[in-house]
Amino acid sequence: MSALQQPMAGVKVLDIATFLAAPFAGTILADFGATVLKIEHPKLGDPMRAFGTPTECGDTLAWLSEARNKQCMTLDLRHPEGAAVFRKLVAQSDVLLENFRPGTLEKWGLGPDALREINPRLVVLRVSAYGQTGPKRGLPGFARVAHGFGGLSFLAGEPDGKPVVPGSTSLADYLSGIWGAVGVLMALRVAERTGQGQDVDIGLYESVFRLLDEIAPAYAKTGFVRERMGADVPTVVPHGHWQTSEGRWVAIACTSDKIFARLAEAMGRPELTAPDRFEKTAQRIANRSEVNGIVADWAAGMTMEQLGAACDAAEVPWGPINSIADIFADPHIAARENIFRIIDERAGELALPAPVPRLTETPPTLRHAGRARGADTQEILGNWLGMVAEDIAALRQSGAI
Question: Does the keyword Cell membrane apply (predicted)?
Answer without folding.
Answer: no
